[in-house]
Amino acid sequence: MRTKIIAGNWKMYKTVQEAIELVSGLKRELTAFSGVEVVVCPPFLALDAVSDLLTGHEIKLGAQNLFWEKEGAFTGEVSGHMLKSLGVTYVIIGHSERRQYFGETNETVNKRLKAALANGLLPIVCVGENLQERESNRTFDVVRDHVTGSLAGMSKEDMLKTVIAYEPVWAIGTGKTATAAQAQEVHRFIRQTLASLFDQPTANAVRIQYGGSVKSENTAELTAQPDIDGALVGGASLKADSFAAIVKNTVK
Fold first, then answer.
1. What is the pTM of this model?
2. Percentages helix, strand, coil for the chain, rounded to the nearest 5?
3. pLDDT tens column, 87-99
4. Where are the domains of the chain?
């Protein structure tokens, strides 16, 4: 039985003080929950403060990116070793915005993924097609390329520590959402691809999230699908009440 996982990607929002207020609100809203793993991914500057707030709480801390070297002359980068020292558990890797704006490729995603695992971090690896690719019927080709390229050289043991997030780029921040049937179709395809890369038991054990304009109103239908194991939430994770509602609707 795969445990659902709801992760909030705050992107480049929230000062340290705003992050403290948001997490304090989440702790009030989510005093106790079961059947779902909850992760918040603040900007780097807020990780330390949020880590302190979450000490002893069931909510896990995640980061939004990492570099593959432990240390060195890499201006502006943050290593997995540094993240681990702050109490980070999860790290998002290869988000579509990283691919679109910062030149991320399957190769660099793969390097970051292996660095995360080497530092005891649990990766959330993002895959998904843009609108042009969807409309030209290339969804499966793009997703297969992202999955196989990003996971190259992975062992079964490491794969079991990794979460996949399917994020149709055309549905991120647009208000458009893949229907539950559309999302399930791609999630099933991802699981089939994992089975071909590893084996069926491994594929059956890996958690696959949906990301793309997730909100409380569509969470229950999405996460009820057999291959959808939670959500990577963007805008709706920036308010305690809306994010808490998504968590609660996941386990209704």
1. 0.96
2. 50, 15, 35
3. 999 999 999 999 9
4. 4-250
